[in-house]
């Protein structure tokens, strides 16, 4: 049972206006933001133009994002999570495997989400790249991230609020390089903090200070909270009491972005900046009284939650669950609790139900036994769904104490098993290795 703040205490702690909280709290019925109350995987509105700016080579890039909305949702005032992909500021896209699952699953929880692209490239890569090039690449991404936030506020005010966004509740998340963007967007928020090692004369596309010139001027780029997955910050002294709350994930053996304060190298060859990884960011946040949570992945390298192996899917499952729990304090007024219990989100038909059967062994290589003795004598349907929500097994009107689940030609990964009996649904996670 979750502890609930009083509305007044929650508003004071989180900086949420009474009107904004009242609007959000009306959406929290039926476990919205906590479970997959919109079970269908959403199809994005692709290539929405949110701005443009000059790239590192002097050409102009039109900036685009993909918007995911809860399928079947009738609300027109939903919180928004903008997500930035990784790729060392050199490669990857808004459709990458590091961000799309997050965008889809957060939309299934009830958020509007947007996966954004940003300007990539370093001026002297691969020969001669240095801290000036790296710093400029980060700043371009941050300026683009701010423009994306402003885009939704402008759209809500001037464009009829096409995507049904509550602009008082915008969040920003990023993976790897996207984590850099999220952290800098939150804490490098004063013109005096714009790094002096970033050359705005020689380096292209950096005018406009911390806000930049990527589009939608005149609107705020502030966000309610951020989620940082394996990113880093240039200077933790930018973080002060009253700043943006954050959630961070990071592996202690990360060889790409340091877990603590250390030199970052590009491709293990080019020494760039000394940066503060998630652990020292969390220490500064604690020292300054900034609400935060830090999930440390012991012994793990960079972004262990990205991929389709059983281990990667386990880390992803904890990532989306912890993110869900962290954001709930803002959407539903629950207490900030960093002592998470990793439990899977449930589908709309299974809310409040106890999964009254077992699957063993789990994980398994080839087959597993489903113990159905609690439903002896009852007719039941057994369904299995893959990570994309596709039904890969459908057994109707099964009667028996046990069912033998075979991997057969299924790929390794995490699956969702649903048992339908007496009009109720019970779900379990099943992992094939």
Give the overall pLDDT as a whole number: 86
> What's the SSE pattern?
HHEEEHEHEHEEEEEHEHEEEEEEE
The first-to-last residue Cα distance is 33 Å
Kindly state the number of beta strands. Answer: 18
Strand content: 25-35%
**CATH homologous superfamily label of the largest domain:** Alpha/Beta hydrolase fold, catalytic domain
Strand order of the largest sheet: 1-2-4-3-5-6-8-11
The CATH level-2 architecture of the largest domain is identified as 3-Layer(aba) Sandwich
The helix-and-strand class reads alpha/beta
CATH class of the largest domain: Alpha Beta
> How much is the radius of gyration in Å?
22 Å
Q: Count of helical segments?
A: 7
Question: Uncertain segments of ≥5 residues (pLDDT<50)?
Answer: 1-24, 348-355
Largest sheet: 8 strands, mixed
The helical percent reads: 10-25%
Could you characterize the architecture of this molecule?
With 433 residues, this protein is α/β, with parallel strands linked by helices. It folds into two domains: 7-331, Rossmann fold; 353-432, Immunoglobulin-like, CATH 2.60.40. It is 23% helix and 28% strand. It contains seven helices and 18 strands. It has helices at residues 7-14, 18-25, 100-109, 131-158, 177-187, 278-288, 310-331; strands spanning 45-54, 60-68, 78-84, 112-116, 165-175, 225-229, 232-233, 246-251, 261-266, 270-277, 292-297, 358-360, 367-371, 380-385, 391-398, 402-406, 413-421, 424-432. The strands form four sheets. It has an eight-stranded mixed beta sheet with strand order 1-2-4-3-5-6-8-11, with helices on both faces. A hairpin with a 6-residue loop joins β12 (358-360) and β13. α4 packs across α5. 45% of the residues are buried.
